[in-house]
Amino acid sequence: MNICYSGAVYNSSGYAQIRHLFIRLARRGHTVKIKPYKSKDYNVSLLYEDELRKLENTRLKKPYISITSGIAPQLVIDPEASYNIAHSMFEASELPTRWISFYNQFNEIWVPSKFCKSAYERSDLKCCIYLVPLGVDTSLYKKQKRKNYMFTFLSVGQWIDRKGWDLLIQAYTSEFMGQFDVRLCIKTYNDLKTNEEMIKEYLSSDIRSSYMPRIMIKNLKVDEKDMPEFYSEADCFVLASRGEAFGLPYLESMAMGIPVIATNMGGQTDFVNDSNGWLIEIKQLKHLSERLCKINSAYANLWFSEPDINDIKKSLRYVYEHKAECVEKGNIAKTFVLSNYDWEKITDNIEERLEQIFNKLG
User: Fold this and answer.
1) What pLDDT score does 60 carry?
2) For labeling, which of 75, 97, 153, 187 is most exposed (least CB within 10 Å)?
3) 69 has which bridge partners?
4) Exposed (0-12), middle (13-18) or buried (19+): which is 169, by Cβ within 10 Å?
5) Among 169, 144, 143, which residue's Cα sits nearest to residue 155?
6) How many domains is the chain partitioned into structurally?
7) Does residue 122 sit in the same domain as residue 162?
8) Within a domain: 106
């Protein structure tokens, strides 16, 4: 098969993770060409970069399938391709109306979760929608979890309001104030604020003036091969996000045998359930903050989940007090993810779909 991919490649975004699919398709003998949006837009080392660079120089023959990745306004069909696929995702339960015309140019759309698929199916789209989840490289996530001298909650994500940092930090500090055998570690990146400023941004005034909780901010960029090191420090992963199209850090944590506390709405509910983690109740649906809508205008007037802060507290406390159950759920989570979300298994399914398309093209 001849396949051309255009989109994010050399960064740590969810969109760029699909590079793992094209690496494996090329290894299986298919002709794959990649056209990165940018040659190098994130200062980290990625797995298999040499293979990716070679795929940039692939000579592509017709007929070929074009797969273009990004949010709707970034998507452009390839007029030379025999079939055009859009790989896209969104964190709200509905799509901005102005995006529909971009999607309707394509023969089909790939989305990473049932949550996204439902949102896209609610819209007036003419093309077919297929579920293409992200995965994990099981060769990378074999590291053993470290034994810590204190119970460690870990969270990973961008430093933006959608990730629910205000809810998590306020819930954690309220529940564990004065306890020194537990900590919250947050891996993020923000080059505009110091670690102390980031924490104090979301602390209530009484705590801000009298008590600095045991919170560690790891504000740095991390090479892809080193991410398991961060997960290995955790006893439980927690992210009280207001909206996730997929939720890759949840999946990566589970692959390490670390159970998760996750919002009960979003892409992560495809793989997080009561047997392998804890789900935070939704208090209500609401619009995102004005400042976040200024960052991403597509969020304006759309509905996102608002996790119940009391249920976040309850979940944190329960996990901390039931460490044996935490370990048990972590083992269940690891078995489930490695059996269902290995990139090789995902490639099997997508290879079959692409072959169906080529057969129809003749």
Assistant:
1) 95
2) 97
3) 87
4) buried
5) 169
6) 2
7) no
8) yes
